[in-house]
Write a structure and sequence with these properties.
The protein folds into two domains: 2-83 and 382-412, Urease, subunit C, domain 1 (Roll); 84-373, Alpha-Beta Barrel (TIM Barrel), CATH 3.20.20. It has a seven-stranded mixed β-sheet with strand order 1-15-14-5-2-3-4, with no helix packed on it. The chain has a five-stranded parallel β-sheet with strand order 9-10-11-12-13. Strands 6-7-8 form a three-stranded parallel β-sheet. The longest helix has 24 residues, at 300-323. The protein is built from twelve helices and 15 strands. By secondary structure, the chain is an alpha/beta fold. The protein binds zinc ion. The site of zinc ion has 5 residues, from loops. Zinc ion (ZN) binds next to loops.
Length: 426
């Protein structure tokens, strides 16, 4: 491990990078593995080659043949969980001042410095992977490259580079905008060649904080969106669809997008279709709910609209659970009042106001999100052959989900993917 822990049994470091040669044996009071299974007490987790090798009850350790080859870490007062994942962020924005941040884009040094700090804060909170929804100057993609090059420390990034949107509509800070099928094709090809992992499409504008139920207009019809989705899929790119009205949700479902972002005001019928087509929903409640934290900026009428909007969203999450829609946790960090590495826990808190149990919420935050961002082969659960990404908290998060806010310990495996790296350098 990289850190100051000198091979002692009680490690005190907060953030611990797992190195290829580390052979670790973590003794945990309790393991919540992220799959939705009930927690298991007094477990021993073997880590080798930066992967979880095995998990066994501690009472079976005595006759383990290779016990002494492992560096033992006694966390018998700690609950161990998989590293957390945020399915929707925008590193290009800071969540505080849109105008100031976008002006700062002119100074890459300043922006890089801010983002470096945001990424560090994020991983220190135990968020070990994020999906970035894009920005005009490709800060998300550039951050991915910097992490791959070991220039900075941060979570693994799935990047969309820039977003596809209809010229003249909402989205001008997210990409260049397109006008025709020919331009769609050029854009997707360009993004693919840049090495993006997924494609982000703005199917609608944003939700209004002054008119209840009002959302910026739908940007693509089914024919055009289907064209985008098919093209993306032919290149092996999944499509994350920003759809903030039921109309946009319907278009997105028909066009066959892979994940549905926001989905404010979506109908029960839409949720049923999403179950049928197995399209996950990332409801991003916090960008709306957090507006109530700055009441001075809104009139009473507006605050009422904001409250009704996010409370409806919580109600629809209950419906989604009932209908078996796969859910994901995304914060839209970077949006006004949504902070990188911090607001994630507010989103968990909001989910906790629904009928979802803490165990279900942890599953959504880990394995569900790993599936959504396409990394479930290596992240999202404490199971054999997964990469080693673990967080440790004192106490039992199933009794108090807010414990996740301040993890005692974070273990992470740095990303190592040479193919993508060379692509991004080109
Ligand atoms: Zn977004």
């Amino acid at each position: 491990m990289t850190g100051n822990n000198q091979g002692v049994d009680n490690i005190k470091m907060h953030l611990n990078q797992i190195n290829p040669k580390d052979k670790l044996l973590i003794l945990a009071k309790r393991v919540i593995d992220g799959t939705g299974a009930q927690p298991k007490n007094n477990q021993a987790i073997f880590i080798e080659n930066q992967q979880i090798k095995n998990i066994i009850p501690q009472k079976k350790l005595n006759n383990h043949p290779e016990l002494n080859n492992y560096h033992k870490i006694d966390l018998n007062d700690t609950t161990i969980l998989p590293g957390l994942i945020d399915s929707h962020v925008h590193l290009a924005l800071d969540g505080i001042d849109f105008k100031k941040t976008t002006e700062e884009w002119k100074s890459p040094a300043k922006t890089n410095k801010r983002v470096k700090q945001e990424l560090e804060n994020t991983i220190k909170k135990g968020i070990i992977a994020i999906r970035d929804g894009g920005d005009k100057i490709k800060i998300g993609l550039n951050s991915k490259r910097r992490i791959l090059n070991n220039e900075i420390v941060g979570p693994q990034i799935i990047s969309t580079g820039q977003a596809i949107y209809k010229d003249g509509n909402y989205g001008s800070f997210l990409g260049p905008g397109i006008n025709s099928k020919k331009e769609i094709k050029n854009e997707i090809t360009r993004l693919y060649n840049l090495g993006v992992d997924q494609l982000k499409v703005l199917v609608s504008g944003i939700v209004s904080f002054s008119n209840y139920g009002k959302v910026g207009q739908v940007q693509f019809d089914v024919d055009n969106l289907e064209y985008i989705v098919d093209l993306a899929h032919s290149l092996g790119l999944e499509v994350m669809a920003h759809a903030s009205s039921n109309e946009a949700v319907q278009v997105s479902i028909k066009a066959g997008v892979d994940t549905l972002e926001h989905g404010y005001f979506l109908s029960e019928e839409s949720l049923k279709l999403m179950t049928e087509k197995d399209i996950p929903w990332i409801p991003t409640v916090v960008p709306v709910a957090n507006q109530t934290e700055v009441p001075d900026q809104y009139s009473d009428e507006e605050l009422d609209v904001i409250k009704r909007t996010y409370k409806l969203q919580l109600k629809m999450i209950d419906k989604a659970k009932e209908l078996g829609v796969r859910l994901g946790i995304g914060t839209d960090a970077g949006a006004y009042q949504v902070r990188h590495g911090l607001s994630y826990f507010r989103e968990l808190e909001l989910f906790n106001q629904t009928s979802l149990t803490p165990l279900e919420i942890i599953k959504i935050a880990t394995i569900n999100n790993a599936e959504i961002i396409g990394l479930d082969q290596k992240l999202g659960s404490i199971e054999a052959n997964k990469e080693a990404h673990l967080i440790g908290v004192k106490g039992n998060p199933l009794n108090d989900l807010s414990l996740l806010k301040d993890p005692e310990l974070v273990f992470y495996t740095p990303i190592n993917n040479e193919t993508k790296l060379s692509q991004l350098e080109a």
